[in-house]
Amino acid sequence: MQLPPTVTPRAFERLAEIGAADQGQALRVAVEGGGCSGFQYEIALDVPKDDDLVLEGAGQKVVVDTVSLPFLSNAVIDFSEELIGARFVIENPNASSSCGCGTSFSM
Questions:
Q1: Disulfide check for 76: which of 2, 34, 84, 91 has CB 3.0–4.6 Å away?
Q2: Long-range Cβ pairs for the range 91-96 (8 Å, 24+)
């Protein structure tokens, strides 16, 4: 059974800090072919489209296009701050392996 991805409160809080909704934008999470493991995540601020899945929290939005949804079923979209930097991360139970870069995976 495919369930939509979820977004952590920490990710919504970070979007609020950068003022995404104030600019009419949402965090777009997409899956595209490529990367060192076959697929890669594309994460960027973007304007929501009519056919996007919209996940809302703290006055912010995260959007996923319909083609990427099956790849992100049950995934968790989070924000991580580490010594090497801060970034949005995807915890994806569908990925059979991932690359050290954190943006490339295989299924």
A1: 91
A2: none
